[in-house]
Each structure stands twice: as C-alpha cells, then as structure tokens.
Prior knowledge:
It is a single chain. This protein has 6 helices and 8 strands; from the N terminus they run βαββαβααββαββα. It is globular. The strands form 2 sheets. The chain has a 5-stranded parallel sheet with strand order 2-1-3-4-5, with helices on both faces. Helices cover 44% and strands 23% of the residues. By secondary structure, it is of the alpha/beta class.
Amino acid sequence: xxxRALIAYGTYFGATADTAREIAKILGEDGFSVKVVDLKEExxxxxxxxxxxxxxxxxRMGNWTAEAEGFLRKFQNSFxxxxxxxxxxxxxxxxxxxxxxxxxxxxRKIGLEDKIAKYHLEPVSAGAFGGVVxxxxxxxxxxxAMEMGYKSQLQKYGFNEIQPDVYDLHxxxxxxxxxxxxxxxxxx
Length: 188
C-alpha cells in the first residue's frame, strides 16, 4: 500500500505553490499518494490519514504566511507518530551569492529552527529554497528598499526575470534532491 503524503502550503507570490507541486511530483514518483493543499483556498480538517505531512511557507519580512502558521498551530498536537517536514521559500539564493551569510543564517533560524522549537516538531527534514521576487506586488517603500538592496544583484547573478520586475530564485535541482531525500527519510 502506498504511503500517503499531505503537502500543505501558504504562498505570497506563488513560488511556494510551484515548490510544493515539484515536491509532490518527486514524492509521487517514489510511490507516495500525494495531496497538495493551498491553505489559502482549502481548510484541512484532519491529518490522521497521512503518513507524511509537509508544511511549506513563503517568507516575507521574516514571517510565514498566516495560513501556514495557522496550520502548524492547529495541528501541533497531531504530528506525533507522523513524519513531518518543513520548507520555506525565501531570498536565500541571492543572499548566498551576495555573501550575506548572517542573513542566510537568520532566515533559516526564523523560518525553520524557530518554528520547529515553537511547535515542538521533530521534522525528518527542513529545507530552505528560493522563491520569487515580484516587485510589482510590493508596496512603494518595500519596493524601493528591495530595488536598492537586491535588483542589480539579481541581474548580476543571472536570476531569471520571468516577467517584467519578477525574478525566479528557484533551484529546481536542489528542490528535487531534497524531495528525493525526504522520500527516503519518510520511509525509514
């Protein structure tokens, strides 16, 4: 019988949705029966039938989406006996290229380590991936700050502008590799 996996995510600009679908594809190829849920559109009532629960969130100003945070809060006492994994979509790829190791560490701490501690989780895996920078959806002040801090660097380091002022920071091979490892850990 196939193992059942739930991937529940919250997203700001759609990057976490793309990552969740890619993880689902890899888990599916490994024999998992996978349900992917956008927490903004569907309220998960029960996780008891899943062997693996993966929770993902976009990061914005150090915060998870309200929906993903709410999912963790709602089910924090239901994760026992399940394999659990977390992932975030963030600016980590450009920050790594820029040599901002302190910021990378801070993002991992706030986005993953603090959530693990807060909700008393024992995840089999926790991943930090690139997301999407969409200048068109930022408020004026945030857009200006992001343009000053990152826009020229995004171009310099070759991140793809997929639409005007929208940059894709996904590293699909990294995401696939993480998902393959997750499948193995979830079966162990």
